[in-house]
Amino acid sequence: EGPLVESGGDLVQAGGSLRLSCAARGFTFDEYAIGWYRQAPGTEREGVSCIQVRDGDTYYNDSVKGRFNISTNGAKNIVFLEMNNLKPEDTAVYYCGAAWACSGPFGSWGRGTQVAVSP
User: Fold this and answer.
1) Exposure string over 69-104, b if 16+ CB within 10 A, otherwise e
2) Per-residue pLDDT tens for 36-78?
3) Which of 8, 74, 84, 93 is most solvent-facing, going by the fewest CB within 10 Å?
């Protein structure tokens, strides 16, 4: 495994909620931006949300604004993606990556966690 590990994916019904976690192995996120991206079959990877951990600035794709929330834990070694009111179009493999800023480029991708939303 790499330096980032995603978890929390599951199969849920539309309207349900999930919380994804992106955990750091052996370091903290203090000086990094952590981004969540997703990729559905046959599509390109798209940005979902990002947090600049140092100052707490957050960014969201328009498609998830008002439904998803990104945050960190107190130790700043886990980034969460709280996903509410899930829709079938949210179905994808979700990945987290690290960068110096939310403008990217991102790297150190984890292996991803599968989110499936049934109608």
Assistant:
1) bbebeeebbbbbbebeebeeebbbbbbbbbbeebee
2) 999 999 999 999 999 999 999 999 999 999 999 999 998 999 9
3) 74
